[in-house]
Amino acid sequence: MKSGARIYVAGHRGLVGSALTRGLAARGFHSVLTRSREQLDLRDPAAALDFFRSEQPEYVFLAAARVGGIRANSTQPAEFIRDNLLIQASVIDAAHRAGTRRLLFFGSNCVYPRDCPQPMREDAIHTGPMEPTSEAYSAAKLAGLAMCAAYNRQHGTEFLAVIPPTLYGPGAHFDAETAHVLPALMRRLHEAKARALQPAMAGAGSGRPEQPRVTVWGTGAPVREFLYVDDLADASLFLAGLAGPLPES
Q1: pLDDT digits over 56-70, tens only?
Q2: What does the alpha-carbon distance between residue 120 and residue 63 come to, in Å, rounded to a whole number?
Q3: How far apart are CA 140 and CA 245, in angstroms?
Q4: Does domain 7-170+225-239 have CATH number 3.30.40.10?
């Protein structure tokens, strides 16, 4: 694979996108295209098509999305389904029209049913209701999977769908409202420890530290899968044909 291949990473500042750009740089690819949200609004199909026709990317990683944790998904469902449907439709169609050689679309493990058997298998998709708190986001991601399959069937494109589990690693954000489970837990534990180290504000200046308390949502019964984001990047580059076989574990 020539290191001069034109590669567009949509969402390069996010968790997945930043891992992909690191992986591409480490492998010597020097024609990596990136645009910030301010430079290119991927919700605008005309703007996306103009960019694709101008830059002619051969490979596309569609990691741009509106993402967030449980609270954000449950309180902003309209924004989650609207923005993700618009981004996906704009980029996938523009990639087809501009003759992109291969595209990777990143789905989400929330496309599986809420009560999916473990370990999760691809044939379990569409076999039951989704988790209500993230249903809008899940529906958009399911539409992206279907759109890739439809373009492949009708136009002979090579648009691949990747469904990673919950990700962690460099680039994760720790916002109290939108963070995913691992950074959210890390933030809560860090803040609880910080409170415990501070002298008590009450108790006549006893100086005894506050007993730390951490609230964790859920029953603890669900099984969760986690993947280091740079490992996802390695697998994604392999699937795109931009890297050799992955080393044996």
Answers
A1: 999 999 999 998 877
A2: 22
A3: 31
A4: no
Contact between 35 and 248 (Cβ < 8 Å): no
Measuring CA to CA, how many Å separate 222 from each of 88, 115, 118, 123, 218?
29, 9, 10, 20, 8
pLDDT digits (tens, 9 = 90+) for 209-218: 567 778 887 7
**Strand 166-168 versus strand 226-228 pairing type:** parallel
Token couple for 210? 């506050």
CA separation, residue 202 to residues 108, 161, 193, 206 (Å):
46, 55, 18, 8
The catalytically annotated residue of 112, 137, 151, 168 is 137
CA atoms of 190 and 184, how far apart (whole Å): 10
Please give the biggest Cα pair distance in the chain.
Answer: 75
**Selection from 236, 223, 152, 123 nearest residue 181 by Cα:** 223
Burial status of residue 176 (CB atoms within 10 A of its CB: 0-12, 13-18, 19 or more): exposed
137 is catalytic: yes
Q: Return the amino acid letter for 231.
A: D
**Does position 1 have pLDDT exceeding 70, yes or no?**
no
Omega of the bond prior to 119 within 30 degrees of 0, cis?
A: yes
What CA–CA distance (Å, rounded) separates 211 from 192? 8
Residue count of the chain: 249
Contact 31, 78 (CB under 8 A): no
pTM of the model: 0.85
Q: pLDDT tens for residues 100-155?
A: 999 999 999 989 999 888 888 899 999 999 999 999 999 999 999 999 999 999 99
